[in-house]
Amino acid sequence: MAETKDSKEDIKFGGDVVDANPVILKETIEQPQGEDMQVDAKPDHAHPYRYNMNYPSIGQCIIINNKNFDKKTGMNIRNGTDVDAGNLLKSFKMQGYKVKVFNDQTCRQIEQCLQSIAREDHSKEASFVCALLSHGDEGVLYGTDGCIEIKRLTSLFKGDRCKTLVGKPKLFFIQACRGTELDGGIEADSIESDSSPQKIPVEADFLYAYSTVSGYYSWRNTVSGSWFIQSLCDMLSKYGRELELMQILTRVNHKVALEFESSSTIAGFNYKKQIPCIVSMLTKEVHFSH
pTM of the prediction? Predict the structure, then answer.
């Protein structure tokens, strides 16, 4: 959904804004598995709990970066998102990914873009990464012309629909609001051992890293970008070649939770906090280096 209207002061001086609905600031919005399949998994006896990243390519990273929205939607411009897109491009290129950025995409364009990529042959690629930067609400992401279910997009890469990514990590990073709640914070004292075909769930090997927990706003600075993407890129830069992905994301959580607090000219939106949310169906560890 559209964010609260950015004040001139917040835009000029780099204030913090949220990716959510401008009309419903005080209400909490509440909105509203399957088959399995065969996979010929190559065993990695040296690292049985690590995904095999030893492919000709580590994979593609697709960035959907929505900044401007149709007037009829009532959604405001997402100042600062281009900084996020640029930082993500740099960070994932450093990890070896082939990065493509798609700006200001309609719902249909987002779906067609990801559908086209899901139909490609990924047999020589180790993984897949997608970053979605837009307005949002619980379970949905906004194209420039309306909203689309996130599940509709991610399901394009399920094992029964994208067979060349079966058994490989599919990583989604989602910078968008998931509701309209605000977090005021609180003070506190200080496929393993043999090469025979394996049957795995079609929902396996996905990771969804949300910028915030269900029901809450997600904060973005109009000058330096969103708290979540800033932190993700910082941790990837420092630890991408050293730590496993879940360790990196735990440090992202730590940074967002402790190092950020909102500074806004909008009444009731000052001194707010945020915590990202990691939802993992990964079956092994992700190490970008191999």
Answer: 0.86
